[in-house]
Design a protein that fits this description.
Elements: H1 2-12, H2 17-28, H3 40-57, H4 64-103, E1 109-111, E2 114-116, H5 119-136, H6 145-158, H7 160-164
Helix pairs in contact: 1-2, 2-3, 5-6
C-alpha cells in the first residue's frame, strides 16, 4: 500500500529525494509484486544512470582519458599548428592571386573594393559619380553649393572628349 502511494506521489511530482531513493531500492530488489513489475525497468534505469554519473564525477586525474591527452598532447598541438599554417598560407595565396590578377593587366582602378581594368566601365562609373555629385551639391560643406555644382559641371565638360573615344 505504501509503495502504491509513493508511486502515485512520484508520478505527480510530489516525492522527495529520499522517497525516490526508497522507490529505486524497492524496485531494484526482487520484492516488487507482480502488479508493479511494469515500473521496475524505469527505476532500474534511473539507478544505473545515477551510478554512472557518480562514477564520472568520481573520476580522478590519471585515468585513461587524461593519460591519452597527456601522451598525445604534442601530436595534437603539432597538428593544430600545421592546420593553422595551412589556413594562413591558403588565405595569403588567395589574396595575393587577387591582387596580382588586377595589377598584371596594366592600368586598373579600385571602385568599392573591386578591381576594374575596363576603361569603359571606369568612365561610366566616373561620370555617374560626377553627375551624382553635381546633383547633391552638399559633399563639400565648406564650399557654397553653387560653386561646387559649377566645379563638377566644368569637370564633366572637360571629360566629354573621353566619352567620344
Amino acid at each position: 500500500m505504501k509503495i502504491e502511494y509513493l508511486l502515485e506521489r512520484y508520478f505527480e511530482g510530489l516525492t522527495t529525494v529520499e522517497e525516490e531513493a526508497a522507490l529505486r531500492r524497492f524496485f531494484i530488489s526482487n520484492e516488487a509484486p507482480e502488479n508493479l513489475l511494469m515500473y521496475k525497468p524505469l527505476f532500474v534505469h534511473f539507478d544505473d544512470e545515477i551510478k554512472r554519473r557518480k562514477a564520472v564525477v568520481a573520476r580522478r586525474p590519471g585515468d585513461v582519458h587524461d593519460r591519452f591527452f597527456k601522451v598525445h598532447r604534442s601530436l595534437i598541438l603539432w597538428i593544430s599548428g600545421v592546420a593553422a599554417c595551412a589556413a594562413i598560407m591558403t588565405g595569403s595565396f588567395f589574396f595575393a592571386s587577387q591582387k596580382n590578377k588586377c595589377s598584371q593587366s596594366g592600368n586598373y582602378v579600385f571602385i568599392d573594393g573591386r578591381c576594374y581594368t575596363d576603361a569603359a566601365t571606369v568612365r561610366s562609373v566616373t561620370f555617374k559619380t560626377l553627375h551624382d555629385m553635381a546633383e547633391d551639391g552638399d559633399f563639400l560643406p565648406d564650399k557654397r553649393p553653387s560653386n561646387v555644382i559649377d566645379m563638377v559641371g566644368n569637370q564633366l565638360k572637360e571629360f566629354d572628349f573621353l566619352s567620344d573615344e
